[in-house]
Amino acid sequence: MKLITKYNRINIVATIVVMLIASICYYFIVRYVLIHQLDNTLKVEEAEILNYVKNNNKLPDPTNYRDQHTSFEAVRELFKRNFTNVRLYEDRHHEDNIYRVLSFPVTIDDKLYKASVTKSEDEVEDLIEKIVLVTIGIVILLLLTLFIANRFLLRRLWEPFYNTLQSIKQFNFSNKQISPSQETDIAEFKDLDTAVNSMQARIIKDYETLKNFADNASHEMQTPLAILNSKLDLLIQEPNLNEFQTKQLQSMYDAMNRLAKLNQSLLLLTKIENNQFANARAIQLNILIKEKLNQLEDLIIAKRIHLSTDLGGKIVYMNDYLADILLNNLLSNSIRHNDDDGAMNILLNNEALIISNTGAVFSFDTNNIFERFKKGETSEGIGLGLAIVKQICDNYGFEISYFFREDLHHFKIQWAKE
Predict the structure, then answer these.
(1) What is the pTM of this model?
(2) What span, in angstroms and rounded, lies between the C-alpha atoms of 356 and 304?
(3) In this prediction, what percent of the chain has a pLDDT beyond 90?
(4) C-alpha–C-alpha distance, residues 59 and 50, integer Å
C-alpha cells in the first residue's frame, strides 16, 4: 500500500470518528441550550401567573393554545417547583408529542394549588433536526473537500518524493550519473534529495575504487601467474627429474591453473555485479546451444552420454560473452557431473530452459547450490561456476532453480516476463 493511500485512509477515518463524536456532543449541547431557553419561556409564564394572582387574588383562566397549555389543580401538600417532560396525544397530528411542563405551587386564601404550564417541544425538535441536517451537510462537504485535497493537492505535494524515489530506482552507478535535484520548497524533501545525491556520489566513487582495484589486481596477478606457469613448464620438462619430483611439480602446476581460473572467475563475478557487460543484443538461444554442444561433443562421446534435445525458438537480449558463459557453465556441469552411459536432456521454449542429467546425488544442501565455493566432495572445479550462472540470471531478471526428480538433476531458467 502506498504511503499517500494509507495516509488518506487514516486521515479520513480519523476525521469521520472525530466528526461523529463531535456531532453527538454538539447535538446534546444544542438540545441543552434550546431546552434551557424553553425553560426560561416557562419561567416567564410562571412569573406572569404569580403576578396575576398577587394583583387579583385569584387564579387566571386556564388556557389551551396549540403549543401551550396552563392548568390549575387543588392540592393538599406543598411540593417543590420542578420541570418534567410528558408525552401527550394530539388530535391534530394524531400522534404523541413531547411537552415540557413547569409545575409550581400557588396559594390563594390559604388554599394550595398546583399550577402547570405546558409547552410543546416541537419547535425545539424541529430546530435540532435542522441543525443536525446542516451539520451532516457540513460534515459531508468537509469529507469531500478532504478527499479531493488528499487525492489531488497532497499528490502534488508528494510529487518531489516520488520523483526522488523513481530516480533511486533508475540509478545505475556504472553510468556515473547522479540524479538531478528536485525543485521543492519543502525542507524534508530537500534534505532527502541532498542525502540521495550524496549517497549516489559515494556509491559511484566506491564503485570506481572497487572497479580499479579489481582491474589492477587481476592485471598484476596475471604476470606472476604467467611467469610461474612458464617456469613450471620448464621444470616439468627437465630430463633428470625423478618420479617424486615430477608428482610434486605436477601438483604445483595444477594448483597454479586452479589459481588462474579462480582469479578469472572472481574477476568475472565482480564485472557482472558492477554491470560492466551492458551491451546486449538479440540472441537465438537454440542456435547458440547447438554451437556449444558441437564444441563439447568430444566430452559427450567420451562419457557415452545419451543426449536428447527439444529446442524451440527463443530470443533473449543479452551480452554475447555472458550468454556464452551461462550456457558453457551449465552444459559443462551437466557433462562433468554425469555418469558414464548417462543421460542428458535439454528443453528450450518460450517459458524456460531446462537442462537435466543423471549423476550421483549431491552430498551438500542443495538450497545453497548457487552460493560461491559450494561444491561436492568429488568435484574438481573451484565452486564458482553456478555462482556465476546465478549472477548472470539475476543481472537479466531470469529466475534459476535446481531440483532433483526422477533420478535426474534439473537446472531450470525461467525467462523474465515481457
Answers:
(1) 0.48
(2) 16
(3) 6
(4) 9
